[in-house]
Amino acid sequence: MVRSAWLVASVLLLVVVVVASLTIGARPLSFDEVLGALFAPRHGDVDQVVVRELRVPRTVIGLMAGAALALVGAILQGVTRNPIADPGLLGINAGASFAVVLAISVFGIVSPSGFVWFAFAGAALAAVIVFVVGSRGRDGSTPVKLALTGAAVTAAFTPLITIVLLSSLDTLNQFRFWSVGALVGRPLDTAGAVWPFLVVGILLAAILARRLNLLALGDDVARGLGDRPAVTHALAAVAVVVLAGTATALAGPIALIGLVVPHVARRITGPDYRWVLAFCLTLGPVLLLSADVIGRVVVAPAELEAGIVSAFIGAPLLIAIIRRAKLAGV
């Protein structure tokens, strides 16, 4: 009952943040003006153009990317039994970044809507490498092996990215904006291209929820309770590929959301992944959209990218969670 009340509260908080994302910015708008732009459009109205062409796309992308980042973080932490697992740790962001660099330098693609499939493919390739290599051997995919494989993948891609960037100033100028992580400048077409993958990822997360609870007890105990850990790992790998690819394609390699949000959810719900994943669907977008709104106003009329602000918010939040866990003896 308490967890249900908290979940309702998180949904209401998400609604508030969505309204803030549509109304707050360098050009403040009232809620009535936003409703008018959405349901009673007027040709040539500048305020309505701001809502429809700028704020709606970044709000939709924030909702999708935030949910995907939080879910992939929770799934990675569950399947690897590693509390600091996230797309960055397992080399997924590095794979996406390398693919985007290639898209810019080799194919001359300069728009976010053009990056989307390259980022998705790079993230998917890195995730597949990590799970395939990290699962070899008699012990299967242990947390240490996956973390080490992810570090190796990051170490392999990073110098390649650097070589390309140092050889092309134009590529560096285009890439540095994407690499920060942002919601601005992403057209709604980007969301339209990848939303089916997000739906598939959410469905896989729902299927994995009970399996992750069993896996948390250890592979041997999970087998004794009727689960097949190999199947769980395979489903988790697919979910990670789909969700991480979706998130990085939409918003770039935004850090800490996939790491922090599952910890916040567990502080509210306990270790039950059925609830943790449900809270990730709301708290991930809340954190990402809040970071985007703060970035619009803190240095107005300029903006800070959501990836920068989310790091400033997420780092102290994670430190506070760790300190509370130590004080509680966890």
Automatic annotation (TrEMBL):
Gene Ontology molecular function, alphabetical: transmembrane transporter activity
Record field: transmembrane: 59-76, 88-109, 115-134, 146-169, 193-213, 234-261, 273-294, 306-325
SUPFAM superfamilies in UniProt: ABC transporter involved in vitamin B12 uptake, BtuC
Keyword Glycoprotein: no
Record localization: Cell membrane
GO cellular component, one term: plasma membrane
Biological process (GO), any one: siderophore-iron import into cell
Alphabetical UniProt keywords: Cell membrane, Membrane, Transmembrane, Transmembrane helix, Transport
Pfam family, one: FecCD
Membrane topology designation: Multi-pass membrane protein
Family: Belongs to the binding-protein-dependent transport system permease family. FecCD subfamily.
Protein name: Iron ABC transporter permease
Lineage: Bacteria, Bacillati, Actinomycetota, Actinomycetes, Micrococcales
